[in-house]
Amino acid sequence: MRSKPKIKKGRAGAARGFIPKLLVIAAGAALVAGVPFAAGAAYRYVSKLPMFEIRQVKVTGLDFVRKEDFVRYIGDPRGLSFLRYSISDAQKKADEHPWVKSSIVRREAPDTVRFEVVERIPAAVVNTAAGRYVIDSDGYVVAKINDPAWDFLPVIQYPSAQGMKLLGEKSVGPMKEALELVRAVRSEPSEGLAGSAVSVAEDGNPCLLLGGAVVKVGRDGYGEKIKRLTEVSADIRKKGWKPALIDLRFPGKVVVRQARAS
Q1: Strand order in the sheet with 213-216
Q2: Does residue 253 share a domain with residue 151?
Q3: Which of 183, 262, 196 is nearest to 229 (CA)?
Q4: Residues spanned by the domain of 220
Q5: How far is 139 from 33, CA to CA, in rounded Å?
Q6: What DSSP state is assigned to residue 220?
Q7: CATH no. for residue 174?
Q8: How far apart are the C-alpha atoms of 208 and 220, rounded to whole Å?
Q9: H or E stretch at 208
Q10: Do 101 and 188 lie in a common domain?
Q11: Residues 218, 239 share a domain
Q12: Do 81 and 133 belong to one domain?
């Protein structure tokens, strides 16, 4: 029997065999590459469905700010996508509110965004050349006011020619010291301190305005200095002096400078 002749594949045959394999590989790669794209497109489509809209905004922890004003400040999320709403951006915006000390933002399925707010506590009113401001217990300026509703708070005079920058970091340090002095004055039940007012000098240090006199107290140890002031005030009244300056900054020493006679 005559054997069948072996047919050698030439370059053309090899190419014809390689092309289908290449097409299969390319098709598989395209399919794999298309999966994330398809998933992303599906997610974007689903996230825009009305069933995934935010319909409720819940806010807890507000006493001094109305919920409506807070929601307006952060940007009302109702109607936006529940799935695509940025919690980090919302929290950043909430923390920028001058009355908010800290906040937590979370989604609550199926249609709610919740803000849990820690509000700043008002501690005093500051009178400045630029107006009146409410500050919190950390000395942080939270709001400019123009009504008497805050008159129940102690008052700090800030006669700086520059006034006070709203939310300005430079005002925080001096205000904290002034608040410490306010607390020390309030804790000392003395008639000699009646009508006194806490002020912040141009150098940023707190002082006391008492009966036409400026009382310099420096920093720290306000409780002990205020007690010393009550003792000195009693002696001053007995002697009939009208001091322009009382300096309590030196340990164990009080400097009194009388007003010049007119």
Answers
A1: 141-145, 131-136, 122-128, 155-158, 197-200, 206-210, 213-216, 243-247, 255-258
A2: yes
A3: 196
A4: 122-258
A5: 56
A6: S
A7: 3.40.50
A8: 14
A9: strand 206-210
A10: no
A11: yes
A12: no
Q: Are 124 and 92 in contact (CB under 8 A)?
A: no
DSSP states of 34-75 as a string?
HHHHHHHHHHHHHHTSGGGB--EEEEES-SSS-HHHHHHHH-
Same-domain status, 111 and 127? no
Total structural domains within the chain: 2
Query: And the tokens for 151?
Result: 């008159």
Helical segments of the chain, H only: 11-47, 67-74, 87-95, 172-186, 222-239
Separation between Cα atoms, residue 105 and residue 19, nearest integer Å? 56
Residue 36 backbone class (left: φ over 0; alpha: ψ -120 to 50; beta: rest): alpha
What is the amino acid identity at position 2?
R
Angle at 199 between CA 209 and CA 101, to 5 degrees: 150
H/E element, 108: strand 100-108
Alpha-carbon torsion angle 216, 221, 226, 228, nearest 10: -90
pLDDT in tens, the chain (262 residues): 445 444 444 444 443 344 334 334 444 444 344 555 555 565 454 556 667 799 999 999 999 999 999 999 999 999 998 888 999 999 999 999 999 999 999 999 999 999 999 999 999 999 988 888 899 988 888 988 998 899 899 999 987 655 555 444 445 678 889 999 999 999 887 777 888 899 998 788 999 999 889 999 998 899 999 999 998 888 888 888 889 999 999 888 889 998 776 5
- Residues 178, 198: contact at Cβ < 8 Å? yes
> 188 and 243, same structural domain?
yes
